[in-house]
TrEMBL record:
This is CBS domain-containing protein. It comes from Thermostaphylospora chromogena. Pfam families: CBS, MgtE_N, SH3_actinomycetes. Gene3D superfamilies: CBS-domain, MgtE N-terminal domain-like. One of its GO terms (molecular function) is magnesium ion transmembrane transporter activity. Signal peptide: none annotated. Residues 364-421 form the CBS domain. Keywords: CBS domain. One of its GO terms (cellular component) is membrane. The lineage of its organism: Bacteria, Bacillati, Actinomycetota, Actinomycetes, Streptosporangiales.
């Protein structure tokens, strides 16, 4: 049986009893001096965002949409050995030669050569038109833009050849492409892509960051550990760094700027448009562990004469997070923060119970008092727990809505700073 490794990315992993324990993120192979490389195993991502190693000898079967294993998985975080290569992260898009023609690696195929022994036997290569000769390591030229801000793939002939017919896997290529690597990441949520970037070798991480568009990179930075996002932002030019910050939620951009030297933060704010910088500057005036410092300045806000149908149309937008979509804030005009007079909140469940033509002013919950920007983290936590809420309205001293604190913002500040990187060690026993 022949399995193409890029197609394994994201495949669910099950124990023999049928319980899903994670998803495949990469395939670990050796790189011998000669002959097809042996497959050592798979990198499996388990909750909470922990990457562990599944030896290939524990894999019972590989089926469409499922990898089934037996035995035990050591829960120690996966650490790549110097003799190992990550097939998806490091070999896809590598510029190689087949019969003196240049091309790039589209995929690699593994086959079981004997029971529980797998090797990389085939390579799918996209050969470039009109190229030949020994220019391995040269980046192919791209044009146009794709969903990741990448150029469209170069046209050419796709061939599947034996591993031994390909030259160039031993080369270190500074300008290695990322189109096929990003294609394997295309369906990942931002949090999962952040974890994937964290696990990449430094050079490949930089290449992926350069290829992501600003909005996708902004989403990913919001989910990364502090040191990773500072490192990535520091590697961007000032103009692009400002564009990425502008694409982030203002509260997340504020958190990131607070981690930078003040002069660097001010320089980036100066490169943003006044409209983009204004909410971030406002958030920077509040203490980091207060309602004002944690809140988003862009909740769903509508006037009292808007209808339930209008509210449902707003909260069903894909970019609105579940916590923000849980309730609609009703204010007098203007409805951009800081708003006109705050009137109250309309809960999502209430919106579902009343006719779509009902005015929001008629379904406002009058029992929920707003909080002040100066309220401490402990106070916000107590407020949300007391009223069983996932978000809280934040109102200034003259009664204007200035933002909303969501439960995910509170959790970010309650958990240890390195919570995205921490998880307990242990063993999963599949019997």
């Amino acid at each position: 049986m022949r399995i193409f490794v890029a197609r394994l990315a994201g495949t669910a992993v099950f124990d023999p009893s049928g319980d899903q324990i994670g998803r495949v993120r990469d395939v670990v192979i050796g790189m011998p001096a000669s002959g097809p490389p042996p497959v050592h195993g798979m990198v499996i991502e388990m909750m909470p965002r922990r990457r562990v190693f599944l030896p290939i000898t524990r894999v019972l079967s590989i089926e469409p949409g499922a990898v089934i294993f037996s035995g035990k998985i050591n829960m120690r975080r996966f650490e790549q050995r110097v003799t190992e290569v990550l097939a998806i992260a490091e070999l896809l898009d590598l510029v190689v030669e087949v019969n003196d023609e240049r091309g790039s690696v589209l995929d690699l195929a593994m086959e079981e050569v004997r029971p529980s022994e797998w090797r990389i036997t085939k390579v799918a290569v996209l050969k470039e038109r009109g190229t030949s000769g020994p220019a391995v390591g040269t980046r192919r030229r791209r044009s146009g833009r794709g969903i990741f801000g990448l150029g469209r793939r170069a046209r050419g002939e796709t061939v599947i050849v034996d591993w031994g017919e390909v030259r160039g896997f031993e080369a270190t290529q500074r300008d290695q492409g990322v189109a096929n690597l990003l294609a394997s990441y295309e369906k990942l949520r931002a949090a999962d892509l952040a974890n994937a970037l964290h696990a990449l070798p430094y050079r490949r991480r930089g290449q992926v960051v350069a290829a992501l568009d600003d909005e996708r990179l902004a989403d990913v930075l919001e989910e990364m550990p502090e040191r990773d996002r500072i490192e990535i932002l520091g590697g961007l030019g000032s103009e692009r760094a400002a564009l990425v910050l502008a694409a982030m939620n203002p509260d997340d951009a504020t958190d990131l700027l607070q981690d930078l030297p003040p002069e660097r933060a001010e320089a980036l704010l100066a490169l943003m448009t006044p409209q983009e910088a204004a909410p971030v500057r406002r958030l920077l005036t509040y203490g980091e562990r207060t309602a004002g410092g944690m809140m988003t300045t862009d909740p769903v806000i509508l006037p009292p004469d808007a209808t339930i149908a209008d509210a449902l149309a707003q909260i069903r937008q894909e970019e609105v997070s579940p916590a923000v979509a849980a309730q609609v804030y009703v204010t007098r005009s203007p409805t951009e923060t800081p708003t006109g007079t705050y009137l109250g909140v309309a809960h999502f469940q209430r919106l579902l119970r009343d006719p779509p033509s009902t005015l929001l002013g008629a379904v406002v919950d009058p029992t929920i008092d707003p909080i002040k920007p100066e309220l401490s983290l402990a106070g916000v936590t107590f407020y949300l727990a007391t009223y069983n809420l996932v978000a809280a309205p934040v109102v200034d001293e003259i009664g204007r809505l200035v933002g909303a604190v969501t439960v995910d913002d509170v959790l970010d500040h309650l958990l240890p700073e390195d919570w995205r990187e921490r998880a307990g060690d242990g063993v999963v026993d599949a019997g």
